[in-house]
Amino acid sequence: MIAVTGKSGPCAGARAQGPDDPYLGLSAEQAIRRAIEDYGSNLAVAASMGADSAVMLHMVSQIDRNIPIVFLDTGKHFRETLRYRDELIERFGLTGLINITPDHDRMLAEDPKGDLGQIDPDACCDLRKVRPLGGFIRKYAAQITGRKRYQARKRANMPILEPNGPQVKVNPLAYWTAGDVTAYMRKHDLPPHPLLSLGFLSIGCQPCTTRVAAGEDERAGRWRNTAKTECGIHYINGKWVPVPEKKTSGIFQDGIRPVRS
User: Fold this and answer.
1) 257 pLDDT tier (thresholds 50, 70, 90)
2) How many alpha carbons lie under 13 Å from residue 94 in its C-beta half-sphere?
3) For residue 227, is pLDDT > 80?
């Protein structure tokens, strides 16, 4: 059993479990440690190097610097994102970075002009994200993500331990708020993504990412003026699988867990 020490973020110190989400009530650090216990070498971290990726990567570095960190280089990232990736990996001493890219021949065949994202965003995401990431990361039994409930309505009922077909996703920050993220960044003096101060609150590929206006959802700047809200890497067999809604009450603070009804 890996010892659990320290507190940070919502539910820190709470140990309650539920039959439908055995990680419910665990702090983010506890959830990561529990995932390492449960899945060992069959566990990887999926890192987008987005607006607040420093939180998850720093947390992981304090527990296991050798865990695989899978980054998908779509060929369409902001240059700032690639520099941010290199800065975080070096600063945190992470040794397991795996940089994957889309298949070169498929790119030439399906997006010869490099403008597929403007013509058919779903097809572009499938080519540059879903297939290359799915083809690689599916060899792991579980992956850790940095997704949070507050980011978008489709994530509002996301559990910490999330069934996802043959693979499970572990979302240690599921119950965190934007304030929790900011507090953690400040506490540990973590560098923000360089585009964050320019109004990019959720950062994906450059052609499909815009600034977010005051009052908008964090992910409102992704695929602006389309019905698209997710790239598809968190879908199962091409379909979004919603998490059944659960009513909760209580305040997510250190040592306090939600009361489900």
Assistant:
1) very low
2) 27
3) no
The sign one gets for the Cα dihedral 91, 56, 41, 48 is negative
User: Pairing between strand 43-46 and 161-164?
Assistant: unpaired
pLDDT digits (tens, 9 = 90+) for 13-33: 333 334 478 999 999 999 999
Q: Tell me the pLDDT tens digit for each residue of 194-217.
A: 998 888 888 888 888 888 888 777
Q: Residue ranges per domain, the chain?
A: 28-236
> Tens of pLDDT along 146-184?
989 887 777 788 899 998 778 899 999 999 998 999 999
Consecutive H or E run containing 260: strand 259-260
Rounded-to-integer distance, Cα 143 and Cα 42, Å: 8
3.30.930.10, 3.40.50.620, 3.40.50.1970, 3.40.50.150: CATH of 28-236: 3.40.50.620
Residues, the chain, total?
261
Of 124, 125, 205, 231, the catalytic one is 231
- Specify the DSSP class assigned to residue 10: T
Cα(197)–Cα(193) distance, integer angstroms: 8
Is 231 catalytic? The answer is: yes
Distance separating alpha carbons of residues 249 and 261, to the nearest angstrom = 8
